[in-house]
């Protein structure tokens, strides 16, 4: 379930597009995973409405739909899973609140943190930032390719590489053996989002 291109549906860099419009373009490009990311949003009704609207795209596209953070909303809707980080609800608490069929992803920023998340039973870990990224800012820790490759060798659950990944370094990340590669700006700021997503999807399938 966690493999291929992991797209983050976050319109921070593309405010002229709604989350639904952005999701449509990403899915038209063939991404296999879509995470709705609405950091800082406090209107739960709005989040629920957007989540529900994206769920209607399941009729047309085959994809794994992950909701970032909002566990209470995820438990009431047929999303495929939730994604949390160090500052969110604990992994064991998340498990208690959602359906056993829903998956849990976790953002890790060190080898030890990723290993601990695996021990606690998450279904996958997102590891990064692999390269410097404007999305997270200059103070966000950069892990690099060597640590990513080491993590791939150390844990059994799927690893999603994230952070500063684009056309020029994509192959380098892919060669580490990660299950999935996540991107925000490389996709959402493209002139043609669907075509850019398609390029990465095809590259990963070779």
Describe this structure in words.
By secondary structure, the protein is α/β, with parallel strands linked by helices. It is 36% helix and 18% strand. The chain has nine helices and eight strands. It has an eight-stranded parallel beta barrel with strand order 1-2-3-4-5-6-7-8, surrounded by five helices. The mean pLDDT is 94.
Q: How are the strands of the largest sheet arranged?
A: 1-2-3-4-5-6-7-8
Structural class: alpha/beta
Average pLDDT taken over every residue: 94
The biggest beta sheet is recorded as: 8 strands, parallel, barrel
Which strand-content bin applies to the residues? 15-25%
- How large is the radius of gyration? 16 Å
Cα distance spanning the termini:
19 Å
What sort of overall outline do the alpha carbons produce when their principal axes are compared?
A: globular
Share in helix: 25-40%
> Which ranges are low-confidence, i.e. pLDDT below 50, for 5 or more consecutive residues?
none
Number of DSSP helical runs: 9
Order of H and E elements: EHEHEHEHEHEHEHEHH
| SS elements, strand count | 8
